[in-house]
Amino acid sequence: MLTIVLQQGINGIVVGSLYVLVALGLTLIYGVLVQINFAHADIVTLGAFSAYLVTHMLSGNYFAGIAAALMVGAMLGWLINAGVFAPLRQRGSELLPLIATIGVSIMLQNAMLLLFGPIPYAFDTPYSSKVIRLGSLFFTLQNLLIILVSSATIVLLYAFLKFTFLGKALRAVSQDRETAALMGINPNFLIMLTFIIASALAGMSGALLGPVLVLTPFAGTSVIVKAFAIVIIGGFGNVEGTIIAGLIVGLIESYTTQFLDPGLIDIVVFALLLVMLALRPTGLVAEKRTENV
Amino acid sequence: MKPLLRIPLLLAYLTGSILGAATSSRATDNVVKIGALLPISGPGSYFGVQDKQGIELALEQLKTGVNGHKFEVQYEDSACSPLPATQAAKRLLDQYQPDVVIGEECSDATLAVMPLMDQAKIPLLNAGSSSIKITEPGNPWTFRIMPNEVMQGVDIATNAYKRLNARTAVLLNENTNAGIGNAKVFADTFGKLGGKILEDIGFGRDINDFTAIATRIAGLSNVDVIPTYTLEGQGLKITEALAQAGIVKGGGGKAIQLGTIWLPFGFEQKAGKAAIGYIRIVQFDPTDQRPVVRDFIKAFKARFNSDPTHLNAHAYDQIMLIADVVKRGAKDAQSIRDGLAATKDFSGVTGSVAFDKTNQNVKMDTVHYMETKPDLSWESLKWN
Amino acid sequence: MSDISRLKNSRPALAEKSVTSRRLWFLVAAITIALLPLILPSSYWRTNLIVCAINVLLAIGLDFVLGYAGQLNIGQSAFYGIGAYTSTLLIMKLALPFWVAFALGVLVAGTAGALLSLFAVRLRGHYLAIASLGFAVITYQILLNWISLTQGPLGIYAIAPPPPIALPWLPRIVFTNLANLFYLTAGFALLVYFILDQWVRSPIGEALTAIREDELSAESLGIDVPKWKALAFAVSSAVAGAAGCFYASFVGTLVPDAFVITESFSILAMVIVGGMGTLIGPVFGAVLLTILPELLRGLGDLRLIVYGASVTLVVLFMPGGLAQAVHVIARRTFLAGAKIEIHS
Fold it and tell me: Where are the alpha helices (DSSP H) in chain C?
C-alpha cells in the first residue's frame, strides 16, 4: 500500500508538471495584461505538432524539435497579440478579447485538423520509452525531462523577473501600467514581449508534452479548462501560486483515481476551485499587489 | 466545307452536347443516391475521414455501375452528436433525397436519426454503433452489419472464461455510450459464468496520462484479464502504462488485455512491446485469406498507401452491400430496404452478412479474434 | 468604464422611444415569426428555425445577467442542462404532465442560478467568470457520472414533444408538426423578450445598471446588491432552463455532451457578436451564429475555420456587435429627420 501511495504521489507530480507548464504562460499573460488567452492551449498543441514534424518527418534531433516548437510558439504569440489583444486594448473590455481568442482557438484547431487530420499521432522521443525504476517505483525519462525542464524554466523565469531590467519593467507594467509608462517604459512593447515569451513557453511545453498527450488537434481542449482553474487557485498572475496549484491538482488527480474514481477527477478539482474562490479568491499565495490610494 | 453549312452544323453540335449534358444529369432513374451521415468535424472526424476512404474506394470499383445503375454519394456532417446529426439528416433527406443512408458512427447520433429515417421511409445502414438499442426494438428501416455490444460482449467474456481460463477481470472503459455499454455486457456475462469483476474503472476522454490508473490496477493482486474499451489514442497510452507498471504480458506481467473492435491494425507498431499478448476482437482481419479481403487490401494500399483499418473496411462493405442489393434488383428506397432485409449470404471484407428479423447481422464470422505476437504481427485465433 | 456605458455614451441621444413604436416592432416580430415557417417549408429549415428560437432564448437570458447586470456568468450550459434533465426526468420517471415538468425545470434551473450567485456574491470580473465556469464543469460531470439518475452517456431517448394543445376554437395543435413547435418556442422567446424588455426599462433595470457600473456606489445608494444579483442570475438561468426543456422535447434525445462548457462559449459568442449592450443584439447574434454554420456546410472542411474567423473578426471590428452595425446602417439609410425611430 505504501508503494502505491508513493507511486501515485510521483504520478501526481508528473501530471502536475504537465499542467504547470501549460498554466505558466497563461499566468504570465494574465499578470501583465489581465486577459485570458483562450487559444493558449492550442499553441501548446501546435508546438507539439511542430516538434513532431521536425523530429519524425525531417529526421531532426528531438532538441531541434523543441527549438522549432519554441519559435512557432513565439511567432504565434506575437501574431495573436498584434492581431487581437493590441487592437482591443483601447476598449478596456474584459470579455471582448476572450471571445476573440475563442474564435482564434476554433480557427487554430480546425486548421490543424486540416493539416494533420484527426488520427492521434504517436510521438516517440528517445526518452519516452525509457523507464527509470527505483525499487518498485517507476517513471519514464520523458517525465523526468518534463520536471527538469519546467523547474529550470521556472528558475530562469524568476531570475528574469527579479534581476533583469526587462523583467523588472515587466513587473512594473503589471502593477501599474500608467505609472510605468510615465517612467519611460513602453508598455505595449513589454506586453508584446510577454506574449512572445509566454507563447514560446507554451510551444516548448507542447514539444515536451507531445509524447505524453494523446496528440490530436484537440489535445488543447483536454487541458485548457483545468489550466484556468490552476491559474485561479494559485492566484491570477502569480507564478509561485500557479506552480503550487498545478502540483496540487496533479496530486488530486492521482489520489482521486486511486481512492475514488477517475470519472470524479473534474468534480473534485473544480469543487476545490469553488471552495478557494469562496474562501480566498486571491488565490493560494496572496497577491503582493498594493492598491494605490 | 461551305461556310453556310458550318453554322447549322455548329448549332447541331451545340444542341447535341447541351441535350446530352442535360439528359445525363437528369438520369436520376439510373442513379442510386447514397446519403452518408458521418462525423466530419470535431474529434469524431477520426471516424469520418477513414469512412470516406472506404467509400471512395468502393465507388471507384463500382464506376461502371451494377445492373444498369450507377452510384452517387452525398456526405453530410453529423458531428457524432444528436442535434447536429438531426440537422444533417434533415438536410440530407430534404435536399438530396437519397435512396439509402449509411451512418452514423456514434450510438447517440444513430439513435437520434433513426426516427427520421423511419418517418421518411429511407433505409439506414449502420456499421459503426454498438448500442443494442439500435436494433433490439426491431425497426424495419434500420440495419446494422457490425456485431452489437451484446454479441461481442457475451462472446469475448465467454472466451475469456473458457479459453483463457480467466477468473478475475478489471474493466477499463471510456465514459461514452459505447464504452459503458460494452463494459456492462462483459461484466454481466463474466459474472454469470462465475468470474469476478475486481474493478470497473471508467475514465473521461480528456485523460492523457494513465499511469495513475495503471498504478491502481497494479495494487490489485491476481488480475487475469483487462477488458479495455477505448479508442486508439487513449488505448495506446493505457497499454503503455499497463506495461510500464508491469501488469500486462508486454511489461513482464501476467494479465492479458482484451479489447473489442476499436483498435486498428498498426496499433502494435505504435505501442511496441507493450502490446504483446493483447487479445482482441477485430472487425477486419488483415490475415483473412478470402479473395475479397486480399483484393481489398491490395486495392486500398495502391490507392491510399497505407493498410486499411476496420473503419475503412466497414464503409467499403456498406457500399458493396448496397451494390449487392441493387444487383438483386433493387432500385429505390423501398426495394433497397426489402433487399437488405432479405440478405442471407453476402460476403464482405469484414465477414458475412445475414440479417435476423430485427435487421441485425447475426453472422459471428464478423467477430475475429487476434493476438499480438512477439514480433508485433497479428495472429488470427480462429475462435469463430 | 465598461463596454456598455461607453457604447451608450457614444450613441447620440435618440428621441424618447414611444410606446406605440415599440408595440409596432413587437407586431412586426410576431408577424415575422408567423411567416417564417411558411417561407421555409422544408423540414431541414424548420429544424434550423427551432434551433434559432432556442438559441435566442439562451442568448437573451445570458444578456440579462451579463449585459445589463454586468455579471460575468459564463456557465449558462449548466442551467441549460439542468432545465433539460429536470423536466425530462420528471416526465419519464414520475409521469408528470409536460407543462408541470417544464415549470419545475425552469424553477430548479432558476434556483440553481440564484444559489450560484449567493455563493459568488463577493466575486467579480474574471473570478466570477471562472467560478461560473467551474460550476458548469461540475454540473456537466454530475450529469455524466450519475448514471443511475441521468443515464449519463447512455442517453435518454424517445423523449416526446410537448403534448397537443386543444383550444376550443382551433383544430388540435400537434407539436410533431415542426411549424407548430417553432411557433411555440419562438412565441415563448418573444414573450420572454417582452418581459425582459419591460424590466430593463423599469426600476429593475436601473438597479441592475447601477450595479453593473459601480457596485460600491450602488450599495451606498441603498441598493441591496446581493439580492439584485441573485435575481439577475435566477432570471437568466431560469430562461436557460426553459430553453433546455424545449431542447429535450425537440431533439428527442438527451445526452450530457449537449451541455459541455463549450456550449457556454457559443452562447457567450452569440451575445457578444450580437451586441451586448442591447436586448435585440443577442437575437441577431443567436440567429447569425445558428444559421451561419448551416450556410457554410458547402465549404466542407473549411466550415469551422470560417466560423471561428467570423467570430474573431466581428469582435475586432464591430465591438458593439450586429446591433451596432444595424444601428449604423439604419442611421445612414434613414437620414436625420425621418420619422422612423430605431428600436434598440
Answer: 3-10, 19-39, 43-63, 76-94, 98-119, 125-145, 147-150, 178-200, 203-213, 215-220, 225-251, 261-274, 280-295, 303-317, 321-333
- A120 near B CB under 8 A: yes
pLDDT at A293 over 50: no
Q: Is C318 helix (H, G, I), strand (E, B) or coil?
A: coil
Mean residue pLDDT of chain A comes to 85
Range of A59's domain? Answer: 2-279
Question: Could you report the per-residue pLDDT of C68-85, keeping only the tens digit for each?
Answer: 888 888 899 999 999 999
Q: Answer whether B108 sits within 8 Å of C155, measured CB to CB.
A: yes
- Give how many domains chain A has, as a whole number: 1
What is the residue extent of each domain of chain C? 3-333
What's the whole-number average pLDDT of chain C?
85
Chain B closest CA to C228's CA: distance in Å? 35
Minimal Cβ distance to C252: which of B93, B112, B204: B112
In this predicted structure, what is the pLDDT of residue A255?
A: 94
Closest CA to B62 of B255, B304, B325, B245: B325
Say how far apart CA C189 and CA B123 lie, in whole Å.
36
* Ordered domains of chain B (ranges, CATH): 30-147+289-366 (3.40.50.2300), 150-282 (3.40.50.2300)
Residue A133: which CATH number? 1.10.3470
Q: How far is CA B148 from CA B284, B352, B381, in A?
A: 15, 15, 20
Which has more confidence, B270 or A70? A70
Interface residues on B facing C, Cβ-Cβ cutoff 8 A: 40-41, 76-77, 81-83, 86-87, 90-91, 93-95, 107-108, 111-112, 115, 131, 133, 175-177, 179-181, 204
Residue at A290 is within a domain: no
Residue A223 included in any domain: yes
> How many residues appear in chain B?
384
The answer to whether position A164 is within a domain reads yes
Global confidence as pTM: 0.87
Q: Is B221 an 8 Å CB contact of chain A?
A: no
Instruction: List the chains bordering chain B where 3 or more Cβ pairs fall under 8 Å.
Output: A, C
Closest partner residue to B212 (CB to CB) among A11, A120, A218 is A11
Residue among B49, B207, B218 minimizing CB distance to A118: B49
* ipTM of predicted complex: 0.87
* Residue B20 pLDDT greater than 50, yes or no: no
Residues of A in contact with B206 (CB under 8 A): 221-223
**CB-based contact A228 C133, cutoff 8 Å:** yes
> What is the average per-residue pLDDT within A36-63?
89
Residues of C with CB under 8 A from a CB of B: 42-45, 47-48, 51, 144-145, 147, 152-155, 157-158, 247, 251-253, 255, 257-258, 294, 297, 300-301, 303-304
CA neighbor of A28 nearest in space, from A207, A163, A173:
A173
What CATH fold (topology level) applies to the domain C3-333? ABC transporter involved in vitamin B12 uptake, BtuC (1.10.3470)
